[in-house]
Amino acid sequence: MKKRRSLIALAGAILLGVVLMGFVGAGFFVRARLRASQPALRGSRPLSGLSAPVRVERDRLGVPRIASRTAGDGFRALGFLHAQERFFQMDLMRRQAAGELAALVGAAALDADREARLHRMRARTERTAAALPPAARRALETYRDGVNAGLSALGAAPFEYLLLGEEPAGWRTSDSLLVVAAMAFLLNDAAGLREARILALEQTLPAELVRFLNPPGTESDAPLVGEAFPTPEIPGPGAFRRAGFERASAITPSASPSLRPGAPPPASGSNSWAVAAERTAGRAPLVASDMHLPLAVPNIWYRAELRFGGTRLAGLTLPGIPAVIAGSNGRVAWGFTNSAGDGTDLVALETDPAEPLRYRTPEGFRRMEVFAERLLVSGGAPETLEVQETIWGPVTRRWGRPYAIRWTAHDPAGRRVGWLDFAEAESIEELFRAGWESGMPPQNLVAADRSGAIGWTIAGPLPRRRGFDGRIPTSWADGERGWDGFLEPDEMPAIRNPPSGLLWTANNRIVDGEWLGRIGSGGSYAHGARARQIRDRLLGVEAADEPAMLSVQRDDRAVELEVWRKLFLEALRGSGEARAGEAARVLRQGWTGRASVESAAYPLVRNARLELFRSVYGALTRPASELLPEFSPWVANQWPGPLLRLAREQPAHFIPPGAADWREALERAVLDAALRLAADGPLEGRSWGGENLVSIRHPLSPALPRLLSRWLDAPPRGLPGDAGLPLAQNGAHGPSNRFVVAPGAEHRGILHMPGGQSGHPGSPYYLAGHRDWEEGRPTPFLAGPAAWTLTLTPGFIPALEQPVDEVTRPKVGDAQSSRWGPG
Predict the structure, then answer these.
(1) Model confidence pLDDT, tens digit, residues 158-194
(2) Alpha helices of 458-558 — where are they, by DSSP H?
């Protein structure tokens, strides 16, 4: 018996040893794979297709300086670096646009895939890639080959694939177009949601009430052309009777998820401006840009500097495409903001009741095409999605009846590659032409050149609408309404060298009149307060330089909320509520006039205004919410203007539900906000830094144990700024970069961004520069002294197995530049 127990103990020890050895072995294996998946930083590596060696010097932040003989060699090398540093990010972007995420990450992504696959972007981009002019196709193929060589040169696949148990697929020419399409999904309304919401509002409320709640602008507007739009007059009691109720207080507020206490308002977009030479200290025009996007690790942008021929191109690249998206080429500097231009229309389909796939067109009834889209699922069974298409676009029944989605991104014009010519533009005029020939979401393009010229235009295609304004869905069946192609370059709105010497954009309305109609007057423009604050700051700068422009980008002054603070203080005067005294004390003593991390009053004022918005707009738009479950009052972008007018004029028929008068409504808004803020401690201790906690995470982090996710994510930190301010930092949405640069004086320029250059947590510069972005410290626009040097030499790297791009005869007429040269 004793011998048997000894044998059992020995067997247990052996088994434990085997298990431990397995864990140790697995640990060594994982560690080896992680080390092998890191990019090459030093030495020499072969890269087939080069016409001459390419030198890659990385500075301490990991920013590469790529020196090559030709542009083609430089962008081939950039593809190599993108793959080595950011391939998983590139893979996610192409899959998001194509509706192929579930094949990589599993069934959790199926809903996103179904929504994206409706647009069949994979098929569309492959057709476009096959028909590109020769020079453009050669440019994308050159970059593609660099990407696949960089991926193949890694000792192991990027670490994310190890976590997912998958292998990366090679890069295709059309994948670069999918990356651009992913940006269109991010920046455009691909589903037509806004039109559906506005239609619901107009179908359920009298016209004068709709005009008041959802005006095209307010006194806060700061357009470049035209004047501010006044906030409409408050409708009289008759508007309520026509809506079927006597007054606002008689309505139960909407239970829309977007109005739940604590639900954040939609995040705001980007800022850019240009300052003419005569207004600058260095007598050279300045361009400033900070693009506000969802923030993740790694950051969406990859910094790079390329030198070839007589060109030094520097700024922000988008992994997946061979271009500097925003920056300077030494002759021209440029930046972008989302224009809120209307590139999507819902076409109300008139279908045959006896045969729902038949729909009326100006030429008579036609039958929808039907495509069976196969959605692959990692670890699960595939599913088939039926996609119906009309001559105007794919069909959605999401809004209760069949609509076709007409979207610029569906059209070949929405996938043009004029952005390839940004690299060698000589003037703002050449840059504008490249922008007009670019397939991208309609963007404000602000630029300056070495001659001193500054200018603004819209880059990306704009539809030429006929018979309607694109504000709400309409039928195109009778031929009276539709798109007559796209605006020609000479029809595109553009401003050159304004007398003020200033240009500014902040997703606001830029122009009025006919130009506004061309861009689209659907009312999706951001409230003008942010643009106005930027304009006023710029007008106050006598001799602009790079640090002064960074200061404007970092402006967190709460100008609009100062008015609301006074209104709330007045409402609390004489209140008998227990918390009123504490709230009033915080409003008086904790106010810094800024969305600063130490301010206790800022979150109270901000959240009290949101409480009032939820009460007023939630009540008045309830009928629309009942008609359309996906309705949200946030569709009224200009809400701060009407809400402030109500709070100041206090009409009796607009008193919010549950309040006896406007004083009580304002008091309740403050106290409700205070109650939520004080749930975790005294109100004085609830500073904005604790409320505005910025947590920038890796896409896989939420699915990982905390120990691993902390290894990937940037440490959470409370930051100043808020949506609606120039420093528009609100949670994990904010400035994805900040740069200021004068063309030809890039050595004085500033550029920083969140996250870091590398997507690999084992990199020596993972998250390098992130603290500079958090604290607003300037870092140089150009790459610094070399910390690591890599030489890429003409040679052979075995290519990854990949689908062969379909090749067809290119269209006659090569409109693209042939400056890429050999390689």
Answers:
(1) 999 999 999 999 999 999 999 999 999 999 999 999 9
(2) 513-519, 529-539, 546-553
